[in-house]
Amino acid sequence: MIAFFGCSNNAPFTESDTPSATAASTVTDDAIPTLKPAATAETGDVVVTQESPTATTGISGLAIDCTFNPEQLEISCQAIGNQEGSQLTWTSTGSWATSGGYKWQFTIHDELISPTTQVSLEECVESACQTVEASIDTSAIIPAEPAQDTDFQMRLPFTEDHEPAGIMPMGETINHPPPSSPWGHVGIDFQWDHQAPVIAAVDGVVVEIVSTTHAETGIFNYSVHVVTGEYIVNYTTLESVDPSITVGSQVVVGQLIGLPTPVQKGAEWHMIHWDFGTWEKHEPRTDPEGLTTTYTTTRICPVPYFTDSERERLFRIWNTASYGAKDQFPDLCNGLWKNYSGGTAVESTSKSDTDTEVAIESSPEVTEALPTAKPIQDLDFQMRLPFKTGQEPLGMMPMGETILHPATRENPNGHPGIDFQWPSRAEIIAAVNGEVAEIRTSNPYGTLEYSVLVISGDFVVNYSIIDIYSVNPDLAVGNEVVSGQVMGYAPYVDTSDGWASTHWAFGKWTPGSEKPNPEGVVEKFRINYLCPVPYFSEAERLRLFRLWDAAIYPDAGGFKGTDLRELFPDVCNGPYKNY
Description:
- By secondary structure, the protein is mainly beta.
- It folds into 3 domains: 22-141, Immunoglobulin-like (Sandwich); 160-337, Glucose Permease (Domain IIA) (Distorted Sandwich); 382-567, Glucose Permease (Domain IIA) (Distorted Sandwich).
- The protein has helices at residues 308-320, 468-471, 538-550, 561-567; strands spanning 46-48, 63-69, 74-80, 87-92, 95-99, 103-107, 116-125, 128-137, 166-168, 188-192, 198-199, 204-213, 220-228, 231-241, 250-251, 256-262, 270-286, 292-299, 395-397, 418-422, 427-429, 434-442, 449-456, 459-465, 480-481, 486-489, 492-494, 499-511, 525-529.
- Strands 9, 10, 11, 12, 13, 14, 15, 16, 17 and 18 form a 10-stranded antiparallel beta sheet that branches. Strands 19, 20, 22, 23, 24, 25, 27, 28 and 29 form a 9-stranded antiparallel beta sheet that branches.
């Protein structure tokens, strides 16, 4: 049984650059031979001719030839020019599987269908490795887009004369952390500096009006639930409801629903919580906040369901709306909620000393906002995974989990890295070339553990390892490390069962402070943590997804591993997810 132990959120992180097998050779444009098409292609097959990069150092002449059968969703590839006795490893963006040998045939998995499928082949002879890739046009098997239902379109629940100045977006996790809110805030909060009228977003029937007292503010409020076909719109935290609104009454778009509550007793600012989704009727149930209802809402991000003009209006309002954590939650619907493109806030709204403070459900000020990374286009910086193909981990704790790493003001997004676990001793290798910037020590489980900070340009990688001087006796600050270099070994989490686990983190570095952190450590460098997924090579990213799909997620924090999988389904969760 694997036992996950929470790693310190403020622990210094080291990035060591692992020599990637795919980066072991240098590719030059004048060393790219053109591969001739296969001579015997079956009817209906698409023959792919791939220009294969040849390394100027290491192995030369390697190429791959692939054919695509759209009727069977099959891709067949073979290696050309590989050396006898070399080790071959096949991967593809169209399959979770990997394979060896000089031929590989696989069926594209339904969830991995895309317009272009990449196939990669890594060849290693002793310590020299290179990777070649083929791009296959698989657009013929892309399913047709379903027709959009234009019969259901909403407007915003406020008029042009009363547009909100503050918004708390869907999916924020500071005030709505897992596990009580597995995917964060389940709706959108609109705020005004006055008591603005709340209007109907769509025609419908009032099916329920309930009342409660807010647990935090102590303010009595109403919720009005309006059903339109399969959808339901919930207008909640209303101070008053218009007398024309009664259960069973018809409402028309633009009709007054009610007036919002103050954000705190006696406050000038007012707000509503507004959400949308599909509905299910049942016997009365009481939610954790004490609200008893007979309708359950399966929430949906409402953005695609507004008319075009209202959606553009909402994006404009969001771009200037006051919200203190917009760097962490840049969209109206964040994380798993997002079901549209565009609409990301152009930049965070910063407050000066003279700005009006907007209270959003008593939201704490976020002192260190996490920037949301965009997938990099700079091919000069690509990492490999920090372990060899022959030592792949069986267990993983994902980034952004909040059971063992609860959200706090200092660390509002949960686990700031990825934990990889093995049932036995495992080597940790450098993910990218770089320079050792700092080496720190700790003794969390009775074993001397090192955190090695490796800087590569703007980025930093942290390795939590043991026994570094048994493999790197002269390792010191200022040393260069190369991708693939063995840095040390994964620390043991419990010496009685032999399981080992390493906490591995990545991000952009900034200069540290002379003041000690909460653990009493003076950090020379600090990390703005980023999800590493977009920064791996394509082949390594696919390998990581395959490992995560099969990884053991054990019981922790009173939760079953299967339940934790549902709470944190991705390698990077919550606001960390950038892919």
